[in-house]
Amino acid sequence: MTKTYDPIQLELFKNRFASIAEEMGIVLRRTAYSPNIKERLDFSCALFDAAGQMIAQAAHIPVHLGAMPISVKTAIERLTFEPGDVVILNNPFAGGSHLPDITMITPVFVDAADNDEKILFGFVASRAHHADVGGMTPGSMPLSTEIFQEGIIIPPLKVIEASKLNQGVMDLLLANVRTSEERAGDLRAQIAANGKGVERLAEVIERYGQTEVAYYMTGLLEYAERMTRALLADLPDGVYEFEDYLDSDGIDPEPVAIAVTITIENDEATVDFSRSAPQVKGSVNSVYAVTLSATLYVFRALIGLDIPANSGCLAPITLIAPEGTVVNARPPAAVVGGNVETSQRITDVLLGALAQASRERVPAASQGTMNNLLIGGWDPERERPYTYYETIGGGMGAGPQTPGADAIQCHMTNTLNTPIEALEYAYPFRVHRYEIRRGSGGGGRQKGGNGIRREMELLHEAQLTLLTERREIAPYGAAGGEPGQLGKNTLVRAGQEIALSGKTTQTLHKGDILRLETPGGGGFGAAAE
Questions:
Q1: Domain for residue 262, yes or no?
Q2: d(C-alpha 364, C-alpha 136), whole Å
């Protein structure tokens, strides 16, 4: 029997659920300690049904949100939930993205209709990037060769059980990080955010009843699936291939191939990454959850309508990512860069392939990197350790009708920057320049967006890690447009400029100036047009 949904109620429930996730994000931001969460908003919140299917999300970080359903389903498989529980995990091979992204999952229970028992109705979850989770370098995003070098690995554990904090779990986590006070504050902020999500979802259930709320949860999944099928049916059937490369894995200098074959037939698609490189020594390996997240993002973006980006979007899409490849690495592979850098290249190749099916929908390549910048050390003024993490924006790729946006976070990330005032207040740095990198966007009928130039002086000795891309292989232009300019990393020491590689760890001295120039986006169409 075909279900019928009132379209007005469907839209109202879509916004009710999304508003719960948005309010969770507001609580998380306002109660967090770290600038990375409270200033940059490097977190995501979402709602799930009892089976672990994502129903609604806030407009947060794409690379987090597509991967979170696997985390929730892993927790369901491994644990028995009771009212008042909160589960914590970060294992990338169990649905996480990379170790700094810690996920909190809280079940939502309702009263049974015919007895005093509680019934599991769904879940709320938050994922936040913590500025340090241990590992071999401050910030926990090292040039690693195995995951054990990247920080503490957290399998699904109950950090709160029956509304009581498991102090042993909390103590273990905080004993393995460099900035324990900040981590404790951010973890409590996630717990508070989840508590607000449970409270708001319970209010919706009380008002409309369990049956109707569950009915429209299913309706939103089916709606997203129908809209995705409509997109695929509108694309011409065919086989579309594209290949692009990471500059290197940070250990070996050779480029790393990411290749996709997309087969569209009627209203279904198969996305096959079998031609991609085997997993590598360095940390740019992606886990399956991150590859799935990038796939969800690209197809959802092509729909172009305000539909929920939930698990229903993936129903008509078959993802093939063979184990042991750079897009689905086996443990104990190093994976911390796969979340931030390889996810961007996966997006680039998916868009490159789909452009062949729908040139009018797909832009040129954006900057293709998150320009990960990590600095850690001892702050003698505050007499405490610190870890600073930031991703730096760049140029967006131009589209068929519009130029690319300047100085913006692109595709798989959706954070803000850390304001200069907040940065200099929290860390022993001085910002000399922070500006648009004029002329870095690719030329064309529509010009690619420009990158960013930032210069920071170190006021005390510290350890630097850079995990950046598009320093060797430029973001591609489209339809005859020119590529965006490569990014550059430069250390200025005693007036001498020293070129830094895209992936490096360095000791910075007092007075050193670090300059990052991020890539521009590709242009669209020949300039002569």
A1: no
A2: 37
Does the residue 254 lie in any domain? Answer: no
Give the Cα separation of 24 and 274 in Å (integer). 38
User: Which pLDDT belongs to residue 510?
Assistant: 98
Phi, psi of 288 (to 5 degrees): -55, -40
Q: Give the integer Cα–Cα distance in Å for 409 and 455.
A: 18
- Do β-strands 513-517 and 488-493 pair in parallel, antiparallel, or remain unpaired? antiparallel
**Is the peptide bond prior to 332 cis by the omega test (within 30 degrees of 0)?**
yes
Residues of the chain with pLDDT under 50: none
Cis omega before residue 35 (within 30°)?
A: no
For residue 351 the two structure tokens come to: 């868009």
Residue 325 and residue 49: Cα distance in Å, rounded? 31
Distance CA 507, CA 420 (A): 23
Q: How many Cβ atoms sit within 10 Å of the Cβ of residue 342? A: 30
Examine residue 491 and state whether it is found in any structural domain, yes or no.
Answer: yes
pLDDT of residue 113: 75
**Domain span at 65:** 7-224
Query: CA-to-CA distance for 472 and 465, rounded, in angstroms?
Result: 18
CA distance 233 to 269: 10
Encoding tokens for residue 389?
Answer: 């993490």
**Residues 220-261: tens digit of each pLDDT:** 999 999 999 999 999 999 999 999 999 999 999 999 999 999
Instruction: Choose one of 224, 259, 277: the last residue of a domain.
Output: 224
pTM over the 0.90 mark: yes
Tokens 């960013």 correspond to: 452
Q: Report pLDDT digits (tens) over 128-143.
A: 999 999 999 999 999 9
Number of domains composing the chain:
2
User: Do 28 and 37 form a contact (C-beta atoms < 8 A)?
Assistant: yes
The percent of residues above 90 in pLDDT, for the chain, comes to 93
Residue 246's CB is within 10 A of a number of other CB atoms, namely: 30
Cβ–Cβ under 8 Å, residues 476 and 364: yes
Angle, to 10 degrees, between the axis of helix 210-234 and the axis of helix 7-31? 100
Cα(518)–Cα(132) distance, integer angstroms: 24
Q: What is the pLDDT of residues 455-475, one digit of tens each?
A: 999 999 999 999 999 999 999
Residue 405 lies in a domain: yes
Strand ranges of the sheet holding 384-391, from the earlier edge strand across to the other edge: 384-391, 372-379, 462-467, 503-508
Final residue in a domain of this structure, among 191, 224, 257: 224
